[in-house]
Amino acid sequence: MISASFESWMREQLAAVEASLERWVPADAPAGLGAAMRYGVLDGGKRLRPLLVMAACEAVAGDANAALRAAVAVELIHAYSLVHDDMPCMDNDVLRRGKPTVHVQFGEASAMLAGDAMQALAFEVLTPDASDELAMPALLQARLCGLLARAAGHDGMAGGQAIDLASTGKPLDEVRLRDMHRRKTGALLQASVLMGAASGPCDPAVWAALSDYGTALGLAFQVVDDILDVTQASDKLGKTAGKDLDANKPTYVTVLGLDEARRQAHTLHETALAALQRSGLAQADRLQLLADLVVDRDC
Amino acid sequence: MISASFESWMREQLAAVEASLERWVPADAPAGLGAAMRYGVLDGGKRLRPLLVMAACEAVAGDANAALRAAVAVELIHAYSLVHDDMPCMDNDVLRRGKPTVHVQFGEASAMLAGDAMQALAFEVLTPDASDELAMPALLQARLCGLLARAAGHDGMAGGQAIDLASTGKPLDEVRLRDMHRRKTGALLQASVLMGAASGPCDPAVWAALSDYGTALGLAFQVVDDILDVTQASDKLGKTAGKDLDANKPTYVTVLGLDEARRQAHTLHETALAALQRSGLAQADRLQLLADLVVDRDC
């Protein structure tokens, strides 16, 4: 049960993120590139990562304009990864958020280029020049770029995708499954929290606690995703259900069984909340509610 | 005719760039990702962009360690664009620098992920944290990230690729051809010069002159590329010759004819040298020699 005040906070944040994406993803990029980029990122998705950025910013009383840029950048990276992941040479998925995927709508070459340009755009958004009305200190720009690049790259999301690709049809033990998911989804979720935290004052102990919160939340998200993949229908998920099973990919459910996967989701939820407690932040209730949402969601 | 001292300078710079790439492109990235990344960027290519970064750094008496990072980052972006550009959904090329292309060697999915991870790595290299032995001021990190992202994205390289893709088989007038190439190859070559210039003190007039040098050099490079595509054999180029003609793509040669293309290359060369003159920089001779090299090369 989501409280009215949390729901209204979420609506407000999402409106700001949507308006910023609308502003920053260029409609006029040449030769249909802008249209493919906008199709891939506007008007869709749960926007969990932007919400984590904004909630972490609030928790440290950070700069909301800087956090909004970080939120847009993180969502651009997430959206580009979905565009590339859906392509025929990867998961070959035709449905995403209830719509044809980008490569189905615009062709494979445009989908690849749109994803490439979205990744670059994320770093453009994080580096406003001095003439920009919403400039950010250079130190913050550099930190945000560094956090995002590391979460997106070989030690993060792209590395996780590579393991995912290589593990199809192969048994994976729990340790390696966890490593895959730490990189594939966990790194960017954790970076969302830390990029929000970077927008304000944050001492090393608080940073470490928020980092632990992000790690636990990132893994919890993936365990729940794997559970929903086998327990929900496609129309509810807005994407093809059961596709990991069909593709013979190892998941928390196939490796641990449904009951143990549910138990782990519960434990990770507790770990995330304990880390928040440890942070000592007075304004961490939105981060707590987002952790609840990640574990209790049904799509 | 390249002088011995210029050749020895180039050899020295290339050795440093190669060693840095070797250090920063991770051999241990998971599931073959590191191998595909290293195959795509190590031990090949003319390294023109890194040389431009280092020469511009020298011209402004900049920080050579920072410039080396910029050189590596620019080359990673260039190399990733080749990996993606060679894929079946784009140019479908099987030969690059005399070797099988990345997707031929490692498969399409690995090629796409390697390219994605190389783009992220470029921004990782530009944002060393304080513990790094070769730290850079945050202001410089932010500027370099901003220059690189804009050159790589929708208004730069990715946008140029999109126009290229859409213009196959269509007549393109000289203005639109120039816009395509300004983005597709010009933006990153110009950014190479400016990233080198950012590594040291550089007043606005010098910056503007170097920016003009970069624009002219970038276009000259592409005009010469188009000329070589019809006048040289594949084994000399290390890639498939005549492929633009075969693909029915507009080039400077098809739009202007060979003689006029050669005349334009000459004019652009003069424009680049005039801009260098205007910069008033005393140490600009390496930039001048690189402009000569771009126009006089035969591969």
Give the tally of β-strands of chain A.
Answer: 2
Low-confidence stretches of chain A: none
Order of strands, widest sheet of chain A: 1-2
Distance between the termini of chain A: 15 Å
CATH class division of chain A: Mainly Alpha
Query: Architecture of chain A, according to CATH?
Result: Orthogonal Bundle
Please give the largest β-sheet of chain A.
2 strands, antiparallel
> What is the averaged pLDDT score of chain A?
93
Helices and strands of chain A: which structural class?
A: mainly alpha
**String of helices and strands of chain A:** HHHHEEHHHHHHHHHHH
Query: What global shape of chain A is seen?
Result: globular
Helix content of chain A: over 70%
Largest interface: A-B, 58 and 58 residues
Task: Count structural domains of chain A.
Answer: 1
